[in-house]
Amino acid sequence: MSWVSLFVLFLIGTSSSFGGLERIGYNQGYQPEQPIPFDHSLHAGRYQIPCLNCHVQADKNRYATVPSLNICLNCHRNVAIDKPSIQKLTKAYEKGYSVPWLKVHLLPDFVMFNHQPHVKAGVKCQTCHGPVEEMREVYQFSDLSMGWCLDCHRNPEKARDLDWEKKKELTEVHRKAPESCGTCHY
Ligand code: HEC
Ligand code: HEC
Ligand code: HEC
Ligand code: HEC
Ligand code: HEC
Fold first, then answer.
1. pTM of the prediction?
2. Of 159, 182, 12, which Cα lies nearest the Cα of 111?
């Protein structure tokens, strides 16, 4: 386990030499203004488009991914084509550009997070990201601190919104979320 102590020493070293870096990742409430005013409360709320239709990798991979323009154009070839923001979108698509969306969530590099096991275990997007389907602009809902991760890992069955149907399907293994340092740091 000596790599763990090396890792801790490394972190203590960096955080004492750059005091300010200690708070990296604690940007709770962060809400950058996006280049195109994409509204989740309209798409995921009023029109109830499922999260996974756009964030297609969330149940398969480390990253949930932000959708590419062809997903938007599935609808916006016909919908709201008179709106300036949609014309901007279409023009970008035709030129082969992607939209430079600003990242809302960002963990420090020394933390390993993976969507797949969480989504597969039935932890809802909203447990971690809040009521996104009510947000006109997405903001960081949870503080993403180590304590936040561990609170749930120690008691995953108590995750407030863990989907009840899924919960019944979970095996003993799935009911335990690992707490060892190497789960999230390696
Ligand atoms: C029609 C497509 C679409 C749907 C449906 C959708 N999203 Fe998104 N989502 C986006 C786009 C585009 C962005 C990037 C722009 C932004 O941040 O608003 C995004 C950004 C996000 C982010 C912030 C990512 C970051 O940068 O950290 C989260 C979290 C998120 N979505 C969660 C959800 C959840 C949860 C749902 C379902 C309730 C959902 N989304 C439904 C398209 C979609
Ligand atoms: C257990 C908590 C948790 C759950 C459940 C969760 N996320 Fe995330 N999500 C995070 C964290 C933490 C990050 C930041 C990851 C990073 O910076 O490496 C993130 C980042 C994102 C991002 C931006 C970066 C990326 O991964 O592409 C999107 C989009 C996103 N989540 C969407 C979703 C959607 C949609 C769901 C449900 C299907 C979901 N998340 C479920 C915790 C969660
Ligand atoms: C399943 C269909 C569907 C998908 C996919 C979709 N949208 Fe929409 N979008 C709509 C509908 C419906 C409206 C409301 C149109 C109206 O009010 O006239 C809308 C409205 C909008 C508006 C507001 C236009 C305005 O100025 O009033 C923007 C911007 C937008 N969408 C961007 C996006 C982006 C970016 C994506 C891809 C990430 C996307 N949409 C994917 C159906 C969709
Ligand atoms: C709301 C509850 C919840 C939160 C918050 C949460 N997790 Fe988890 N996590 C789980 C559950 C449940 C599992 C077990 C899933 C399984 O066994 O398939 C898990 C599993 C994992 C795994 C996979 C372990 C493995 O090898 O199987 C990693 C890595 C992980 N979590 C990292 C994180 C990090 C990093 C954070 C904080 C940024 C976090 N988690 C926040 C519930 C949560
Ligand atoms: C479930 C995921 C998870 C587990 C397990 C975990 N950590 Fe962390 N750790 C994080 C996250 C997320 C951060 C970044 C946010 C923060 O600093 O609170 C972090 C940050 C840290 C930091 C930097 C703190 C700072 O203020 O800069 C140290 C040191 C650390 N972890 C050590 C450990 C040790 C030692 C263990 C085992 C006892 C451990 N971690 C287990 C998720 C985890």
1. 0.91
2. 182
User: Is 121 in a helix, a strand, or coil?
Assistant: coil
Distance of alpha carbon 60 from alpha carbon 126, whole angstroms: 18
Domain hosting 113: range is: 28-33+104-186
Residue 52 domain-assigned (yes or no)? no
As a whole number of angstroms, the distance between CA 120 and CA 47 comes to 25
The amino acid occupying position 164 is W
How far away, in angstroms, is 97 Cα from ligand 2 center?
Answer: 24
**Position 176 in a domain:** yes
Domain total of the chain: 1
What's the pLDDT tens digit per position in 56-115? Answer: 999 999 999 999 999 999 999 999 999 999 999 999 999 999 899 999 999 999 999 999
Within a domain: 119? yes
Residue range 109-154, pLDDT digits in tens: 999 999 999 998 888 899 999 999 999 999 999 999 999 999 888 8
* Ligand 5 pocket, Cβ-based, cut-off 6 angstroms: 8, 11, 15, 22, 25, 107-108, 111, 144-146, 149-150, 153, 179, 181, 183-185
Q: Evaluate whether residue 175 is within a structural domain.
A: yes
